Amino acid sequence: MTFYDGIYPFYSLQRSPFIIDISLLVAILVFSVLAVSFIFILPGIRGKSRLFWMFRIIISLFIGGVLVVLNFTGDWAEASVKANATYKSFSNAVVSAEVGLHVGLYGINITLRGEPVSQINETIDYNEIFSWSSSVDEQYGDALERGLPNPILYIAEKFTRNSACGLIFQYRYSGRFASANLWTAFCCWLVANILFSMPVILYAGYMMIATAAFIFFSMASFSTIYNVSQCDFSIGAESLRTDYSHSFWIALATGLLCAVIGLVVVLLDCLFPGRMREAFSVGVDNEEDECHTGECYLNSGFLEGVISDDITQTGNGSLPQQITTLTRL
């Protein structure tokens, strides 16, 4: 029987490792298209306000994009270790590889990459995802049927319901609450952008502060994964322990940015409300729409349409009073 790329012809095609979440890719593309579209519009804005609008649009889209993308990233917490470990069950083969655990809000990724990649006549490069949306026990059973390497099966087994560690409950609920807070922060961001286009700049600042608050709530929710007793992940002679990673620190930076923007907007609106409305091009009336009272000049050509009615009123024991009423036709 012949081989094709190391696979028997009557077997299914070789599975490629998990690379990137499609939802994450879609979110990045949507906000990238919006950013490019607004950049094309900027040349139509005249005057010095062009730079202000460009800065405002880029910062706003950055915050919105981060709030959506953070829901689908898989690196809120990470851990990796290089070790010599048993490759497959019922085998004495030992491989040198880097094992990684990546924790997200919707699941975990377990990676295994050989050093070098080609060992014992195989390419050791795995990236497997186990999602909270479906039963981890079923996914673990499927991984057993596929014959995944021992390090991946060992870590995945720690997140099953029958595991003594009980990690699945804390990790899953922490991720769900963190995601719910991020989506609430995204809604606050949308409301803030709407209010920035209305003569209520002060409330837009309040909504930016609310956005920052919900981002911090999501971080606090995710941090509760460390409230449970830490379960030891022993890979060969090495141990694995997760710590905060890129997405967590990006969320912190975005929350601080929203808080600073909100506080600055609230402070400036209290000190200089007129200039703030002028800067955001809201609440500024045209001179033609304004009504002024005071000295004015009349055109004699329009005086023909003015009717002067003299009404004399007299009262008992009072002086006559003359009231002149001008009616414009």
Automatic annotation (TrEMBL):
InterPro entries: Dual_oxidase_maturation_fac. One of its GO terms (cellular component) is endoplasmic reticulum membrane. Signal peptide: none annotated. It comes from the Eukaryota. Keywords: Glycoprotein, Membrane, Transmembrane, Transmembrane helix. The chain crosses the membrane at residues 18-41, 53-72, 177-196, 203-226, 246-268. It is a multi-pass membrane protein. It is found in: Membrane. One of its GO terms (biological process) is protein transport. The keyword Glycoprotein applies. Pfam families: DuoxA. Belongs to the DUOXA family. This is Dual oxidase maturation factor 1. It comes from Phoxinus phoxinus (Eurasian minnow). The lineage of its organism: Eukaryota, Metazoa, Chordata, Craniata, Vertebrata.
